[in-house]
Specification:
Blueprint: H1 8-30, H2 36-54, H3 59-76, H4 85-106, E1 108-112, E2 126-129, H5 139-149, E3 152-157, E4 162-169, E5 177-184, E6 188-199, E7 202-209, H6 216-224, H7 231-240, E8 244-250, E9 256-268, E10 273-280, E11 284-288, E12 302-306, E13 318-325, E14 330-334, E15 337-340, E16 343-344, H8 349-355, E17 384-386, E18 391-395, H9 405-408, E19 411-412, E20 416-425
Helix pairs in contact: 1-2, 1-3, 2-3
């Protein structure tokens, strides 16, 4: 539309100025590589075009001057002119990479939530169990779910007839897992955990991402006891019914461990499904790295921090929790309540939902007692904690299944990274501004 009001002479003058800039660049950068005759020819053609620009010549005369200059530039320009398509693409990609790295470092960093410590406010990898093969998505639906939700399918079939049994550690009731190396999307190497079950006396297994292993309880409960509120209730009910068999076994390090076999009561024939579930990708979000340089983090906001100064974690990665305590605050957990300075904590709807055990929120739980693995544990039963001048307290919304400040103490102020800005993937219920 705007081309109707464009002056062709003005357009050609703008083009001519671009050619003059290019000619000056070639002359300055390559004059020591040109003969005197060639250099003189370039200067004459350049000045002829410059004179026509100054006198505001019409488009036709400017075009003739450009056509006289261009062959000289083609002979003398070297790498400056003419530019190869490959060189232009390389330059474009390098500049783009520099811009992306700068934005990531100083402004907005993409971040993936791998675990469910903040569930249901943010999802880590979550399972979707299919009760029967008829409930499983079709091939077309699987393709759509993969691109829209990052869903990966996991299917285990029975090699023989028999009852399905779940081997678990007798001390904790947690499923047994063996570290293995696998691949994500058949390409990228990925640390995985092999979870074994039994069909009769025959082992079967499924390999899941390492960060998903703690969520296998969810899969097993939804598969074999969907009527129970959680995995612990399932195990307790089976123990009361005499469906738990104790044995001794050897772990991957050659140590003897006490193992229990949970009798699911579900019998299958060879070729029938033992497990069928999809793993939905954890929420991916942009983190605002800029704000914390100017304003102090606020209680109740999502809180991303670096872990390299938290000794018991033995890692240098990024965690996301909810900020619960600022320097000088006194905190206490009286489950399901979280108290800040003697009153119920405020600042986020998730605080209120947790304390009311509303919906999927389960309330707050105290920190561990007398656990040598966590010498810096805080918020034990009956204990308060006053936040130091140089720290923050960060807690997960999924308090019953969150490794947070209750276990390893405060987050150093200097390790605060930023706050969640926008959930950009997957395209589910959490897409958009953070909670």
């Amino acid at each position: 539309m705007f081309g109707l009001f464009t002056n062709p002479d003005s357009e050609m003058r703008a083009s001519a100025r671009g050619w003059l800039d290019l000619a000056d660049k070639v002359r300055h950068y390559r004059r020591d590589q040109m003969s005197d005759i060639t250099l003189l020819d370039l200067q004459q053609k350049t000045e002829a075009l410059r004179a026509r620009v100054h006198e505001k010549a019409d488009a036709a005369r400017l075009k003739l001057a450009i056509e006289e200059l261009e062959p000289v530039l083609a002979r003398t320009g070297g790498r400056i002119y003419p530019r190869s398509t490959m060189l232009e693409w390389v330059e474009f990609l390098v500049v783009g990479l520099i811009v992306i790295l700068a934005v990531r470092q100083f402004f907005f960093q993409p971040f993936q939530i791998p675990t469910n410590s903040m569930w249901p406010s943010y999802n880590g990898m979550v399972p979707e169990v299919h009760a029967t093969p008829a409930d499983e998505p079709s091939a077309t639906a699987r393709a759509f779910r993969f691109f829209a939700f990052g869903a990966s399918a996991y299917r285990v079939d029975a090699p023989v007839d028999g009852e399905i049994l779940i081997p678990v550690l007798a001390s904790s009731g947690r499923p047994l897992g063996t570290p293995v190396m696998g691949r994500q999307w058949l390409v990228f190497r990925q640390k995985q955990m092999r979870v074994e079950l039994l069909v009769g006396t025959t082992p079967v297994h499924v390999d899941v991402p390492e960060d998903f292993f703690n969520t296998m309880n969810w899969v097993l409960k939804d598969t074999f006891a969907p009527d129970k509120p959680d995995y612990s209730a399932m195990v307790d009910a089976w123990e009361a019914a005499g469906r738990v068999e104790n044995r001794a076994a050897t772990d991957e390090n050659g140590n003897r461990v006490a193992v229990s076999l949970l009798h699911t009561g579900k019998k299958v024939h060879a070729g029938e499904r033992v497990l069928s579930f999809d793993i939905i990708s954890g929420d991916r979000l942009f983190v605002d790295r800029l704000s914390y340089h100017f304003v102090r983090p606020s209680v109740g906001s999502g809180f991303v921090f670096r872990t390299h100064n938290i000794e018991v974690l033995h890692s240098d990665s990024y965690y996301i929790k909810r900020l619960a305590g600022l320097p000088g605050d006194t905190l206490e957990i009286r489950k399901p309540l979280l108290l800040r300075n003697g009153a119920k904590i405020t600042g986020a709807q998730a605080f209120l939902d947790n304390m009311a055990r509303s919906g999927k929120y389960r309330g707050y739980f105290n920190g561990p007692e007398d656990d040598p693995r966590y010498p810096g544990a805080i918020l034990r039963p009956g204990a308060t904690h006053t936040v130091s001048p140089n720290g923050y307290v960060a807690l997960g919304d999924n308090s019953s299944d969150s490794l947070d400040s209750r276990y390893w103490g405060e987050v150093p102020k200097k390790d605060a990274v930023g706050r969640p800005l926008w959930v950009f993937y997957p395209f589910g219920g959490h897409w958009g501004p953070p909670r």
